[in-house]
Amino acid sequence: MTVIRRTRPERFGALVATESPAALVSVDRVLARRLGVDGGTLWAEPAPRERVSVLTGPTEVHLAVTERCPATCSGCYADARPDGAEPELDALRARLDTIAALGAFSVAFGGGEGALRDDLPALVAHARALGLVPTLTTSGLGMTPARAAQLRGLAQVNVSYDGPPGVYEVVRGYRGAATAERAIAALREVGVPTGMNVVLTRASLPHLEATAARAEALGVVELQLLRFKPSGRGRLDYLATRLTPAQVASMPARLRALSAQHAFAIRVDCAMVPFFADDPVISAEALARFGVIGCEPGRSLATVDVHGDVRPCSFWRDRPAEPLTPSSWRDDATLGAFRAFAASLPEPCATCALAPVCRGGCRIVAGALPRGEEVPDGEDFSPDPECPRVRAFRAGT
Ligand code: SF4
Ligand code: SF4
Question: Does the Cβ of 357 fall within 6 Å of ligand 1?
Answer without folding.
Answer: no
